[in-house]
Specification:
By secondary structure, the protein is an alpha+beta fold. It has six helices and eleven strands. The chain has a five-stranded mixed beta sheet with strand order 2-9-5-4-3. The chain is elongated, with a radius of gyration of 20 Å. It starts with a helix and ends in an 8-residue tail after the last strand.
């Protein structure tokens, strides 16, 4: 599922290929994937540089704002030669010099067109601060009133925007904190360690444009259900559903106590 690191990659991709180009038309290949708004009036406008908040990608087009959310399987694809489109291309921005396709196999994401700032705020106004912008003091303040598990808090987009299942598991593993542990049992020192690990995981994953399944990362071992071992200590990884998501942790490095 695309998370903050992936959407940072999509932002760079859009800005490299499509930003500054004139929109000739927008093809709604799958009309259901244009969630709200109309493409009327976009032709002739320049597609602006993208910015990101949490898992949302946002770009201006004339007086309109284009917002994209990538759900579980969404991505962007640029074609400079106008070749055959992919079966999962849902909304295609036909630009001066090529096509930028919003592609989504499972269709949990979508494209929104907002004409007013109020509409943008309705879509993303409930989000918490972007995870990249949360410093240690902010992190302490945000977690202070929370109850429930560490994982539930970190995945709550109204608390901190951008963290998803893979990022949170990676952060907890690096911080040696069990993802199902109640926040009430996490003292100041371990909360600061969670914040430091959040910053490190984001810093290290953003250049890849994803959470990389590399040696030394939990992500590199989590999908091996038969022999997946902790990259740090070699203990067999465990998995269970926590905060509604499949969660992976090391029972030795992350004891629930």
């Amino acid at each position: 599922m695309p998370e903050l690191s992936d959407v940072e990659g999509f932002k760079r991709y859009l800005n490299r290929h499509a930003a500054g180009r004139r929109i000739e038309r927008v093809d709604r290949v799958d009309r259901s994937m244009l969630r709200t708004g109309s493409v009327r009036g976009l032709a002739g406008c320049e597609l602006g540089s993208a910015r990101r908040h949490g898992k949302w990608l946002i770009a201006e087009a004339g007086l309109a704002t284009v917002l994209m959310h990538f759900g579980m399987t969404g991505l962007l694809h640029w074609s400079g030669n106008g070749g055959a489109r992919h079966v999962h291309d849902r909304v295609v921005f036909v630009l001066d010099g090529g096509e930028l396709a919003y592609r989504d196999m499972r269709k949990f994401g979508g494209v929104w067109i907002a004409r007013e700032a109020r509409r943008v705020d309705e879509l993303i106004g409930s989000l918490g601060p972007d995870a990249l912008e949360v410093d240690r003091d902010d992190f302490r303040e945000l977690l202070a009133p929370r109850r429930g598990s560490v994982k539930a808090a970190l995945m709550d987009q109204t608390l901190i925007a951008g963290l998803g299942n893979l990022l949170v598991d990676e952060i907890c593993w690096r911080a040696r904190v069990h993802p199902g542990l109640a926040l009430a049992r996490i003292g100041p020192e371990r909360r600061d360690r969670l914040h430091a690990c959040m910053r490190a995981v984001l810093r290290d994953s953003i250049p890849h444009g994803r959470i990389p399944p590399e040696p030394g990362w939990l992500t590199g071992a989590r999908d091996d259900r038969r022999s997946g071992a902790c990259p740090r200590c070699g203990t067999r990884l465990r998995r269970a559903t926590i905060a509604g998501r499949t969660t992976v942790w090391c029972p030795r490095c992350q004891p629930k106590r």
